[in-house]
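Q&A FORM
Asked by: J.P.
Topic: structure of AMMECR1 domain-containing protein

PROVIDED:
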Amino acid sequence: MVSGSNFEIMTITNELVSTTYLPEVAPEQGWTKIEAIDSLLRKGGYSGRITDQVRQKIVLTRYQSSKYTITYEEYLKLKSAA
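REPLIED BY: S.T.
REPLY: Here is the structure written out as tokens.
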């Protein structure tokens, strides 16, 4: 299982920024925690200057998910069995 991140932040201009990444995104990109947080801020539409003060206002929710890999043939079998 891999941990993912979802967060909300109320900015200085009272705009709510909320976004999420699938758990595997940050590790696949090779991001540090700070880089992942900054990327989440931009993805959520935050256009201001990213400072430590901004990062400290983040309300972070972590979650876990599982990622499975199957062949297309296995997918078709599962789909027809449903």
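FOLLOW-UP: The chain has a mean pLDDT of 80.
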